[in-house]
Amino acid sequence: MTTTQTLRPRGTSTVDPAPTTRRRIDWGMTGRIVILAIAAVFTIGPVLWTLSTSLRLPSESFNLPPSFIPWNPDFTSYAQVFKQLNMGLLVLNSALVTGLVALGQMASAALAGYAFAQLEFKGKSALFSVILATMMVPLQVTIVPVFLLIRGMGLSDTLLALIIPAIPTAFGTFLMRQYFLGLPPDLAEAAAIDGATPWRTFRSVYAPLAMPGLAIVGILAFNYHWNEFFRPLIMTISEQNFTLPLGLVSLQGNMGTGSISVVLAGVILSMIPAFVVFIFGQRTLRAGLTSGIGK
């Protein structure tokens, strides 16, 4: 038996060199990263500047060129906020208003969304269209009729004047309707076969499954109404009924003569509760927003 052997020059390796590969740059991914980075700078930049200014002396707030990093942080502005404002009362009022509004919107949106998604009644499509149309009406257009109704009910200059008109939510109704439409309709049929009423079906079957959607409604309502300024400005007069954004205005002083560092320190303090709610609710919020994508 003869074997054929390939002759190689002496000193050469018998191992074939590995082919050289060049990694191609994904320009699409790079472009998206750049765009997101720019958006993050424009979003977080003002917040960081607010925090930086609140840690500087008022005399250093308008230095040119400006210093972004406070090398000698000063926390006296935060102490001045508590001296000039009754922060406990302001936070309590804001917590009551935003908490009750968030719970009320979750309840009303769940009930209305379930009715529009799972129940059949006359004029359902027309009524839902009217609800959606209210989303295009600015708040400034309806504030005068709402104020007259609140005054006629004897609730002017009370916290209820801020809570009751904010409980109905067109956006929450639309969101929960779409969420209930994404749930299996066989659940309602199985519950009806077992003799469950529509209310029992909603309470025991659909409501537990809709918790991610309800969390979205609650978190968005809390963040919006915690920072709301226009309605409290119109509806309340007494300082004991002021919410936190309205109380922070007094830090500006007469004719805007207040310390800019103290004002921004109050702004930073007012952001903390909303930030905490977002941190603890972001997983639920993300799960609710992405639910149904893979279906």
From TrEMBL:
The region called Disordered is annotated at 1-22
**Location of this chain's protein in the cell:** Cell membrane
Q: Source organism's superkingdom?
A: Bacteria
Where the record annotates domain ABC transmembrane type-1, the positions are 91-281
Q: Name one GO biological process term.
A: transmembrane transport
* Residue ranges crossing the lipid bilayer per the database entry: 33-51, 90-114, 126-152, 158-176, 205-226, 260-281
> Where would one find the signal peptide in this protein?
none
In its keyword annotation, does this UniProt entry include Transport? yes
Feature: compositional bias, Polar residues: 1-15
One GO cellular component, as annotated: plasma membrane
Q: How does it sit in the membrane?
A: Multi-pass membrane protein
Q: What is its main location?
A: membrane
Q: What are the entry keywords?
A: Cell membrane, Membrane, Transmembrane, Transmembrane helix, Transport
Q: Which residues form a coiled coil?
A: none
Cell membrane as UniProt keyword:
yes
Entries under Pfam families matching the protein: BPD_transp_1
**Belongs to which family?**
Belongs to the binding-protein-dependent transport system permease family.
Please report the name of this protein according to its UniProt entry.
Carbohydrate ABC transporter membrane protein 2, CUT1 family
